[in-house]
Amino acid sequence: MSRLADTRFSVLDLAPIRDDGTPAEALHNALALARHAEALDFERFWVAEHHNMDGIASSATAVLMGYLAGGTSRIRIGAGGIMLPNHSPLVVAEQFGTLEALYPGRIDLGLGRAPGADPMTARALRRDRLGSPDDFPQDVEELEMLLGPRLPGQAVIAMPGVNSRVPIWLLGSSLFSARLAAAKGLPYAFASHFAPQYMHQAIALYRQEFQPSAVLDKPRVMLGVPLVAAESDEKAEYLATTLYQRVLALIRGHSLRMMPPVESMRDLWLPQEQEAVGNFLGVAVIGGPQRVRERLELLLERTRADELIFTCDLYDNADRLRSLDILAGLR
Questions:
Q1: Fewest Cβ atoms closer than 10 Å to its Cβ: which of 23, 64, 66, 284?
Q2: Cβ atoms < 10 Å from Cβ of 300
Q3: What is the count of structural domains for the chain?
Q4: Domain containing 220 — which CATH number?
Q5: Is the pTM of this model over 0.90?
Q6: How far apart are CA 29 and CA 258, in angstroms?
């Protein structure tokens, strides 16, 4: 039997803004994509926290989640993730406790230990709060406590939030969060959609060191996968030039607004930049239905992932919807 048939599919979105678009259009497109994923019976739709990036509209992640949850009815809505160094655990617990109260059983909380921003922006976000990635294990523990049942003598509670038991995922692009997720018995999502180099090592470490917990009795691995699916390999490669241009702009520190696809990237990047973009997109799945199937089957054979969460940064939202249609048709 195909491994694809037993693997859950989800979507990770950054509400990308086009070169000729607006944040409002990007947010409306995110909802359209979430509704489409729901109609295709995808498991969850996550949005990610990024700041000071002109091509990304998902900075107010919890606010956007409320919009997405209110516009859908069944699919799980989550953060992939909240960058915990930017926030106090109490504020996160109140935000996600509120979302869980409004949309019970549909909210996920993915946590990252990076700031999701440059150092200057991180300082602007935190002001006098001395948030640090080094505090991540303690912050996760505090957040778990705030979302759990009230303890005897507990003076500070999250309301809403207390006893909401919002599911927590740990996110990572290195080995740190893999080890922490294993020790705490939490599900683990690896950011292979932009940092694939440590993927195999991280998930092997997570599985090897996993300790069963009250929320999870065995390891659960989700992998990020950039997706460009189209009717043919040739069309997919053409559409993927929008993604290539975006990663190239990230490497160069340029605007991240999505650019239209081009016939060739030859004159747009240097050889070393092409190599860097290729490394960034090391697990990207780009092609027509048969190529997409083959590459996903190979990825699942090598990783035994329980779930794949797809990014789909294409210029026209109709092409994003079509990519999900093709993906769903492979199961």
A1: 23
A2: 18
A3: 1
A4: 3.20.20.30
A5: yes
A6: 13
Task: Please tell me the total number of residues recorded for the chain in this structure.
Answer: 331
Residue 329: is the preceding peptide bond cis (ω within 30°)? no
Rounded Cα distance, 13 and 263, in Å:
25
Nearest residue to 110 via CA among 166, 51, 67: 166
**Nearest CA-CA partner of 103 in 185, 166, 20, 41:** 166
Residue 275 lies in a domain: no
* Structural domain containing residue 18: 3-226+305-328
What is the C-alpha to C-alpha distance for residues 297 and 3, in angstroms, rounded to an integer?
Answer: 6
The answer for 165, left when phi > 0, alpha when psi is -120 to 50, beta otherwise, is left
The answer to whether position 231 is within a domain reads no
Residue 117 lies in a domain: yes
Pairing mode of beta strands 221-229, 285-287: parallel
In a domain, 282, yes or no: no
Q: Which two tokens stand for residue 60?
A: 């107010």
The rounded distance, in Å, linking the Cα atoms of 81 and 23 is 20
> pLDDT 10s digit of each residue in the chain, 331 long?
468 989 999 999 999 999 999 999 999 999 999 999 999 999 999 999 999 999 999 999 999 999 999 999 999 999 999 999 889 999 999 999 999 999 999 999 999 997 666 778 777 776 665 566 688 999 999 999 999 999 999 999 999 999 999 999 999 998 999 999 999 999 999 999 999 999 999 999 999 999 999 999 999 999 999 999 999 999 999 999 999 999 999 999 999 999 999 999 999 999 999 999 999 999 999 999 999 999 999 999 999 999 999 999 999 999 999 999 999 999 8
Q: In whole angstroms, what is the distance from residue 247 CA to residue 253 CA?
A: 10
